[in-house]
Protein 1
Amino acid sequence: MGKEITAAQLATVYELGNLFSANKLPLNQVLETLVGSLNMNETSSTNYMRNFAALKAGKVYKRAMSALSYQVFLAKFYQDLSISDFEKVLHSITLHLQYRWSKSKVKHKEIRKLLAEYQSKLALLIPAPPFANEVTDEVIHKANFPEGAIKQVTVNAYERNSRARAACIAHYGACCQVCKTDFEKVYGNIGKGFIHVHHKIDLASIRESYQVNPIKDLIPVCPNCHAMLHTETPAMTVEKLKSLIKS
Ligand SMILES: [Zn+2]
Ligand SMILES: [Zn+2]
């Protein structure tokens, strides 16, 4: 379904999909526009509407969509929806990818990558868990891995997690390597040792045999700088962020 459908057509599909899934526009009227005016195929248009309703409800859908569809829809959903509604959309896509994988071992790498990007954006918007300094990028970004590789890599990540973190902090100190914030200096005893550890390697490029280098691959950063690093995908470099800081 839909590889030939343009971004402009998808923008209309998005508008109509919102109305359709909110029961504000019946399918026949949607089809009048998509098939009648935009010359889209009727089956494809209908599938888009069914998928759209599932996406907004956080449910599984079965018909595949083009990577461009995900690009257009996710960008718009990200702008238009609340965090919890956007989470539903991401959950729905996750279910769809699991379904596609179980049916036909299709990986949909491009869509997975996009999904992982939005999952990490979302992770940064959600209030940090109490032990945020123990959450590594590897855990946050695990959705980048193809099915099957996920479990193995995260198990490895957990195993080496605290040691790699400790080695990184031992080398650099528990001090943001972008803005130099030292939580102990600011907050006293309660801030002692608090820091995020950012993983500099683009996780999409990592293989199962990858071994983290705590000094080359990890870097201590404060939560603010960490969030700013992840405003780009893959994350921007520490050097670039330093150059952006206004003095
Ligand atoms: Zn910082
Ligand atoms: Zn990071």
Protein 2
Amino acid sequence: MPLVTFINSMNTSNTIDVPVGETLMRAAVNSNIDGILGECGGACCCATCHVYLDSTSAPDVPRVGEMEQQMLDHVAEPRRDDSRLACQLVVDSSMEGLRVTIPQTQL
Ligand code: FES
């Protein structure tokens, strides 16, 4: 299982094993990672799973899809070039070592 590191706004990191095929949002929620809410359950309609992706840690992460692109306009913290919705990132083996930063707030 790929190891993924979540870094919160206090710069505390948690590294978890994520099963291949699991979304980053579901893995975070199941592991009680604070700061990723996933209120819509992964339907790409709440923007409460916003993360900042360190693309250097996993350069082959799929690009932003059309629905995700639209929802990223509704995140609570500033949208950046590295903004992603964790529910739209399905983990595969190429994401080993991925690092994401959780914004201070999702609401
Ligand atoms: S969980 Fe709602 S947009 Fe990701």
